[in-house]
């Protein structure tokens, strides 16, 4: 895990400048031990966390009233005005996961501050290891920073972001 935190810190430094003040949040990928594709049929499931994870480094932004997001995996940067987050529509882009989470946090009455996010994930996309859920949860924790949230509420929020915004 030290290698991954070093990589996300370096991605943050490369994209936004200093990384010493950046906090890092991590959410693991997961696999179903039993119950694959039974959850939506009211069947039993037993998901377990795996060693692969998504890491998000976050720090207050020095770039005005914006949410700035960089992905080391896709080498891409995007910026969104904080005041317009609730009105954004899905763009068919990887940032939809972050924006969907931000919108769900706003719907819960949480405050989204101007921040810089650098993302690095070891969970392969499209592998069935919940890479999107890992990104959603780590992004939510980063966007919350010091705001508390119940872990069950966090899981539901990530699920809603994917179903209602991303379209997964």
Largest sheet composition: 5 strands, mixed
List low-pLDDT spans.
none
Q: Distance N terminus to C terminus?
A: 29 Å
Q: Provide the residue-averaged pLDDT.
A: 91
Which bin fits the share of residues in helices? Answer: 25-40%
The string of secondary-structure elements, in order, is: HEEEEHEHH
Q: What share of the residues does DSSP label as strand, in percent?
A: 25-35%
Number of helices: 4
Task: Supply Rg.
Answer: 15 Å
Shape: globular
Give the spatial strand order of the biggest sheet.
1-2-5-3-4
> Which structural class should the secondary elements be placed in?
alpha+beta
Work out the number of β strands: 5
Features:
168 residues; alpha+beta; 4 helices; globular
Report on this structure.
- The chain has 168 residues and is of the alpha+beta class.
- The protein is 34% helix and 26% strand.
- It is built from 4 helices and 5 strands.
- The two termini are 29 Å apart.
């Amino acid at each position: 895990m030290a290698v991954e935190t070093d990589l996300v810190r370096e991605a943050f430094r490369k994209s936004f400048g200093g990384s010493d003040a950046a906090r890092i949040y991590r959410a693991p990928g997961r696999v179903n031990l039993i119950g694959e594709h039974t959850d939506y049929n009211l069947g039993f499931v037993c998901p377990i966390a795996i060693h692969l994870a998504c890491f998000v480094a976050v720090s207050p932004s020095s770039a005005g009233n914006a949410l700035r997001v960089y992905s080391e995996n896709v080498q891409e940067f995007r910026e969104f005005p904080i005041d317009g987050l609730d009105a954004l529509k899905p763009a068919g882009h990887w940032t939809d996961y972050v924006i969907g989470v931000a919108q769900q946090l706003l719907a819960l009455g949480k405050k989204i501050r101007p921040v810089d996010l650098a993302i690095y994930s070891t969970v392969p996309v499209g592998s069935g290891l919940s890479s999107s859920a890992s990104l959603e949860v780590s992004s939510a924790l980063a966007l919350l920073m010091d705001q508390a949230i119940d872990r069950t509420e966090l899981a539901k929020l990530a699920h809603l972001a994917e179903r209602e915004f991303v379209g997964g």
